[in-house]
Specification:
mainly alpha, two-stranded antiparallel ribbon
Length: 268
């Protein structure tokens, strides 16, 4: 528990500084670091099964870490440059394969590298996109707090009252009771913050966003558990004692960030 609290304190401090205290570009830099470390963990897990050549891992890590920079530098036309960027990445991966001595696993290597960049790099970059909206600093904090309150609720309720397994073949420790608790915690946190922290949020938006974040936070957690189950590991790494690796920390945010951005675009 001490390790969990200490690691959480470090992450919370970094989040507060990059969102509220330091210039906007520091959030982009923080996102790039988080993405780079998470992609390193992902390709390290892949390499444990002798799947990944180092050249593909380098391209994946560098490409994912550059995505927040592209969003920051080209935010008025960011969507176009992101499209160009993914096209360049795909062509680069093909060119790397042209130089290899064998053609075996070509499709798998390219597909998994693109998946990692898309799933970790692009999804997490939505935090930077949200930061540039009106009241962006408050919206990012709202998203993180509602998402992580669900994680806390699932852990507290699941560890104390969990009796029925949720999907044991993917995550044997997750329970139905924990999932319900996490969902309720997310909605409760959304209502508290939305009504008192961001003035323009009406109850309908608060409820919709709370429900969506509550659902997709747990789907993101399960998605990362599925990846770890496939690679036969418990934690993605030991970057944060008590919490696991960086990918373990951001797994729920990877799904809630793009969903919340879409929610803002449609309902705000």
């Amino acid at each position: 528990m001490f390790k969990r609290v200490a690691s959480s304190a470090v992450l919370i401090s970094a989040a507060i500084l990059s969102i509220f205290v330091l210039p906007i570009w520091t959030l982009g830099l923080t996102a790039s670091i988080f993405i780079g470390l998470s992609l390193y963990e992902f390709f390290r897990l892949s390499g444990a099964k002798k799947i990944f050549p180092i050249s593909f891992a380098y391209v994946g890590i560098l490409s994912g870490a550059l995505l927040p920079c592209i969003t920051y530098l080209y935010r008025p036309t960011g969507g176009i440059w992101e499209m160009v960027f993914f096209i360049i990445i795909l062509i680069t991966l093909f060119m790397i394969h042209f130089t290899r001595k064998e053609s075996r696993n070509a499709v798998n290597l390219i597909a998994v590298t693109l998946f990692a960049i898309f799933y970790i790099g692009w999804f997490f970059t939505f935090l930077v996109k949200i930061r540039f909206l009106e009241d962006g600093h408050k919206l990012v904090a709202y998203l993180l707090l509602v998402t992580k309150s669900g994680d806390v609720g699932a852990y507290l309720i699941g560890s104390n009252f969990g009796r029925h397994k949720l999907i044991p073949r993917i995550s044997p420790n997750k329970s139905v009771e924990g999932a319900i608790g996490g969902f309720i915690f997310s909605i409760a946190c959304a209502i508290i913050l939305g009504r008192h922290y961001i003035s323009w949020m009406n109850f309908s938006f608060v409820l919709i966003s709370g429900v969506l974040i509550g659902i997709f936070a747990q789907l993101g957690d399960l998605a990362e558990s599925l990846i770890k189950r496939d690679y036969e590991v418990k934690d993605s790494s030991v970057f944060f004692p008590g919490l696991g690796g960086m990918l373990d920390v951001i797994d729920s945010i990877l799904f809630t960030a793009p969903i919340f951005y879409i929610c803002l675009a449609i309902f705000r």
